[in-house]
Please model this.
Amino acid sequence: MDPHSVEVASAPGLVWDSAITLAGLAWDLAGWLYANAWWLALVATVAGCAWVWLEQRLAARALARRTCVELVPSRQFEPDGEQILRFGAQLSRAATAGPWWTPRSARAVRIRLRADGSKPLVYRVEAPASARHLLMQTPYAQVLSEPAAPVRDKSRKHVVRAVFVLHGIPGSRLRDVPLEPDPLQPLIDAVADLRTDLGDLAEVCLDISPASRWRIRARRWQVVDDARHQARRESRREARWMTQDAHAMEDALSWQLTKLVTPQDQRGGQDRRLLMTPRPPRVDREKALGKLAEDAGLVRVQLLVRCASDTVGRAERRLRHIEAALDVYAARTRMSSLGWALGPFRVGPDRWPWKGRFDARWASGLMRPGRDSWARIEELAGLLKPATRHARLPLLSGDVPVYAPGEQLVPQGWHRGPDGRERLLATREDDTLFEVQVGKAGWGKTMRALVQAVAGAHARRGLAFVDPHRDSWNTVAPYLAHPAIRGRVWLIDLTVRDGRQRMACWNPLSMNGTPAPHEVVAATVDAFATSLGWGDANAPRAITILTKAVEALVAVNTQAVAAGADDCQATLFQIRPLLTEPVFRRLVVNRLEAEAARWWQTSFPEIPKEALPTVLNPLDRLAASPVVKAFLGSPTGTYDIRRAMDTACVVWICPAGTGPTDRLLVSLLVRDILRAGLSRRDVPEDRRRPFRLYLDELISLDGAASASLAEITEQLRKFQVRLHGMTQLLHRISGDVRTALLQNASCLSTTAGSVEAIRHITDEWNGQVTPAEAADLERFHHWASFTVAGKRIGPLRIRGPELGEVFKPLARPGKVRALLKAAHDNTASQPLTSLNAVASTHEITVRSFLTRPGPTDSGGSAGHRPTPQSGGPNAPAPESTDTPRRQFV
Model:
């Protein structure tokens, strides 16, 4: 026999023997496994537990090394979609920045949105410590990334928890929420009424983890397989419907009648019913996968919410608000909380055994996302950024102080918070430097300023209220008629008509109180120049003449005060005889130092007579008014604004009107306030008492003292002088004053008015309030912004306070007469007729003083030359008004 044929014949036997052998081994293995099943199960369980324990330990170790930053956006923060995508990619990269041994469940980054009533919504990012360099720099140019300490909260009595997962069709997306308005707005509104005094707290934690490749591949296979099964189910369902339709058609009477009347040979295929099962449609893989089709930008998400409070029910209500806020993302996929409710009982993260797992994930940042918790970065764009400029941030209880009488606060207005409570907001004294109020007449600007003035008076702060109409005095008097205030009230009333009425007096050239002579001269001349529009270009000669005249009279007044003859001081009305009467001028010049007298001897005679009316006419207009003449014509006046500043007096100044004469008088008063404020440089900074200047009807005052008002705003902050201006039309204020006020204003407010009138204010708010929105305000309502602790708050809609509403318990209408008497007594006021009599005869008194022996070089005031004797060799030639003079250039 051929050996080769023997091998071929035995091959099947070898294969059979091998198969029997393998089957026997498999049987023996199965028997061994069955015999040792308990031991194997135990070993597998132990190994599995060891692996879980090791994973948990490694995860806990990795999660313990976390860093935290807080993102603080600017008020103008406005990101675009590209910046958000870059930030999301940065967070995804930061999640994997841990050590190589970090488990997948610990490779996550957490975005924590936190609110406890102290801030609207704090935006924090927590990531592995090795990702700190990634978190400190963000793609947002208008966001500051600051290191933050881990959150440590006190325990609260009532805590509720919620886990939100993505529910919907696999691969479908959340709603594409636009960036304007801010997607965080519903969440900000949900936590707007938190109260720190009740222990309220709300936190939303969004955990993001990069998608692992094997998980996403497995999920894709499941999604596609489910789509195919769904297509087959739809095909079978359609076949059943077709069969049912065919049976229904055969059972129809029309079909049976047609079959009976149609001959057998003409029926064709009517007796043979042939139904074709619909072919299952081809599954479009890209369409079925949806957002799962691409790896780039795909992350797993976990959303945890915890609300707490010390008051029953507030935490539960807060959680419902947050659930409603997250509905903004609902589309074919939505964020829904896990658990279910059975009557009043809720089964979920607040109950065992889920409570412990929630707390562990909350404390550590461990990722345990749901099966379909996949999302793309662009879906979460609304949560991947802090609040933008389009967000309306609520005013929390700690943002702005609430006014309390007697404290160093300036009341601003009533604001209704998100919780429905109305509070009287106030700003701190040191923060409130300058304020501008704009709006319609009779809509609450003056009343709001009066409330501030009364609050300041009762807090023992000094102020001056300039009201051209005097109505404010009658309104505010009942609230100032208190013994503690009456001794500090001054009333400068220039609206008197009856000669028996009392009024105060003031000498702008007075040297009582040792003011600096050059400051008095500069204040007086600048007041005239500002009010009359004089400048070096159009009236240089008038400025020079007035300066030399005032300088000469101030020198005389200095000597009079030094000699104890205060009642002999010259006033503004002695400028006329000084310029027009040679004898009076000679007496004054003889009292001057040699250098000052030389100008009168050499330059003044060269000035033509027609140049003098430019200076004399305004003085004549002042003297023509009996009230102004009485106010300015006395040698010594008790009105001293510097003393009022230093002693915290309450000064009410009521000019008579807004004509040229009144504007000149107002210019003198305002310029004197500037001089007095600058003179406080001799007082140590920590001893300068704040003094507020309220200017009503700013338009009428600005025309007379625009330069002075601008300088007050620019220079007197360091000297604790603050200005509050009220006007109907800000654009009618001179450009310098308007610019200075808006530049340095701590508070801006507007009532309703024309769009053009209030546009200057709304433009300062960068579009947060439109002019049209402000123009529709109700009466006594304002849009206002404030400065608190160096930060701007607002604009807020407030209701203007009223005196009777805020200070009703302080009203003393029966003591108004006593207040008026005290105000006149404090300023040593005299009847109008008496003051006019003094002003009319005061030139004689000044002449009498000038004829007295003057000081010499060795005594009296320093440097005064002796009076030359008439007819001496060195005596100047007598002046004659008839002598023609050459024009002085």
Confidence is low (pLDDT under 50) at residues 856-889. The two ends are 154 Å apart (CA to CA). The longest strand covers residues 298-309.
